Amino acid sequence: MRFLNVFLLLSLLGASVMAAESAYRVMDFRAAPHNYNEHVPKDRFAMLLKQIDKGEFQPDTSSDQALLRSLLQGLKVPVSSQMLLFSASSLQSEIINPRNPRALFFNEDTYVGYVPGGVLEIAAADPEVGPIFYVFDRLQPGGPFPRVQRGTKCFNCHGGTATKRLPGLIAESLLVSQAGSSLETYRRDEQGHQIPLENRFGGWHLTGKHHIISHKANVIGFARNGKIEKMEVVPGQSWDTAKHLLPTSDILPHLVHEHQIGFENRLVRGIYIVRQLKHDRQGMLGLAEQAEIDAWAQDFARYVLFADEAKFPREGIQGDPDYVRDFLEGRRASKRGLSLKDLDLKTRLFKHRCSFMLYTDTWEHAPKELKDRVYYRMAEALRDAQPSMSHLATEERRVIREILKETLHDLPAWWR
Question: Are 408 and 358 in contact (CB under 8 A)?
Fold first, then answer.
């Protein structure tokens, strides 16, 4: 009972913190206690690099596509996750345009970028400091594995206002010109599944049966008589699809990707907040610090439970069968065979609205002070009907509790 009373006190204090802080806490991720640049990476790609150095994994360097395919295999990133974008919004902006789109591939913690005629880029989630960015040297076909360096210029975007000045992941939505440059922004400094579908996908190709009528995908703009006019860009029509591994940019990877990066960015921010507060207070967290963490946890729990998920089209969507198969591979299921990865696609993304990203290393290794508060907020929402969580019906709440109890190993004893 004392434990719950403490949380009730923190709830009141947390509400005051949220009301008082209109601006977010700014932290220097390069300085102590975070020391991003000096951190020894523990992400999936860093582990693969060690295997390559030891000769335990040999990438195919016969061509750019061969290298890409072999790295995707080594990283367990499905080819079916491919998304194509033609906005010139990366380090290789000079060669990205509607005639030469960039491909992105991803799994739960690793993101691979490929531009025909360019170099490979990888962002991999480190459980302590967030995404680490890697940039390859240009491949010499048939030669040795190219040199890889940690990217520093990436933080012009991936450490700016879009990610609240911390290392983070971005998905922009822009009206772009024929050269790929930005003419108009449809979303700004925000990531996650709460963004309305009609505001997404600008500067991206979108394929599949998605039934989204007013989306911003597959369109470029150009100036005429002082006005900006729009023109459709049919996926694959203005470039040779053989330049990419697939001719598609399916709706389902787009939706999963958006949810993931929203989760990752929010969680990384929570990790930095806890570390900064503990550093500032020499390891001790007072009530004010605990209230700040709890205020963050309340928002994060809402995100984990899809409280503000954008509405689907009335007809639902149909995901690419290959990606559905790859996405469901390795799903963690309850004794009854239910999983957080089970797809709905009729009125929402998932049948059981609780994020599968709770199985990632970043969440598993998150500070206990942070996880306990998130689990408390989740238990609170899943135990009783609440106006702020009215999207979850009684049976869905029960099923989510069941899945979590049987598939997560670090739930607090009181949660169970």
Answer: yes
pLDDT in the model for residue 308: 95
pLDDT of residue 395: 95
pLDDT at 90: 78
SS3 labels along the chain: CHHHHHHHHHHHHHHHHHHHCCCCCCCCCCCCCCCHHHCCCCCHHHHHHHHHHCCCCCCCCCCHHHHHHHHHHHHCCCHHHCEEECCCCCCCHHHCECCECEEEEECCCEEEEECCCCCCEEEEEECCCEEEEEEECCCCCCCCCCCEEECCCCHHHHCCHHHCCCCCCCCCCEEECCCCCEEEECCCCCCCCCCCHHHCCCCECCECECCCCCCCCCEEEEEECCEEEEEECCCCCCCCHHHCCCCCCEHHHHHHHHHHHHHHHHHHHHHHHHHHHHHHCCCCCCHHHHHHHHHHHHHHHHHHCCCCCCCCCCCCCECCHHHHHHHHCCCCECCCCCECCCECCCCCCECCCCCHHHHCHHHHCCCHHHHHHHHHHHHHHHHCCCHHHCCCCHHHHHHHHHHHHHHCCCCCCCCC
For residues 365 and 380, what is the distance between their CA atoms, to the nearest angstrom? 23
Q: Which residues of the chain carry a pLDDT beneath 70?
A: 1-22, 416
pLDDT at position 4 is 52
Of 386, 379, 369, the residue nearest 408 (C-alpha):
379
Which among 258, 215, 261 has a CA at the least distance from the CA of 235? 215
The per-residue pLDDT for 51 is: 97
**Extents of the domains making up the chain:** 2-28+263-407, 36-251
Length of the chain: 416
